[in-house]
Amino acid sequence: MTYIQMANTPLHIGVLALQGSIDEHINHISSLGHIPVKVRTSNDLDNLDRLIIPGGESTTIGNILRSTGLLYSLKDKISKGLKVWGTCAGMILLAKEIENETISHLSLMDIKVKRNAYGNQLDSFITYTKINEVSPNNLELVFIRAPYISEISDKVTILCKIDENIVAAKENNMLVTSFHPELTPDTTFLKYFIETF
C-alpha cells in the first residue's frame, strides 16, 4: 500500500456519546469522509484511530464514566497512546486538577482548569483569532460556559490564549480546547486533529 493510499483511507474517529454536543462532531467527521463511532461502552474503544470527548456537563459525564466502568478503559487507552481531543467539558475531564474541586476524572493531562471560567450560559461568546499551528487564517471560536487552563507544566504546549487565558493546548497524544469548533461550519480544527496532530 502506498503512502497516498494510506492517507486517503477513512479513519475511525470515536466520539464519547454519553452527553453533550455529540451529533455536531459526528456530522463534521462524516463530512470529511471519515467514519464516526459513538463510544458508549469499553468495546466501542476497540480499533479507534482517534477519540473526541465532546462538550457537555463534565460532572455528569464523569459520573456516567464511573458508573459504567468506562472511565478506566478510557484512561487505559489514552495512556497507551490513543490520540484524544477534549472540547470544553472534555478538557475538564482530561485535566489532572480542577480548581476548587478535590475530585478529577481521567486525570491524564498536566493542566489545572477553571470550570465555567467565563460565567454562565448568558455569558457565552464568539471571537475570532489565528492559531498558527492549526491554520494561517482566523478561526471562529465559540465559548459556552467555557473553562480555561489556569496552570500548566512544562510538558504542555500552549496553542492559543484569549485575554491571556489559555484556551487550547496539547501534551503528547492529548489536545484540548475551551471552545467548540463543532458548533461552526468550519472543519479546520477537526482536520488538524485528524491529519496533523
TrEMBL record:
Belongs to the glutaminase PdxT/SNO family. It comes from Clostridium gasigenes. This is Pyridoxal 5'-phosphate synthase subunit PdxT. It comes from the Bacteria. InterPro entries: Class_I_gatase-like, PdxT/SNO, PdxT/SNO_CS. It holds the Pfam family SNO. In the presence of PdxS, forms a dodecamer of heterodimers. Only shows activity in the heterodimer. Its EC number is 4.3.3.6, 3.5.1.2. L-glutamine binds at residues 56-58, 115, 144-145. GO terms for molecular function: glutaminase activity; pyridoxal 5'-phosphate synthase (glutamine hydrolysing) activity. GO terms for biological process: L-glutamine catabolic process; pyridoxal phosphate biosynthetic process; pyridoxine metabolic process.
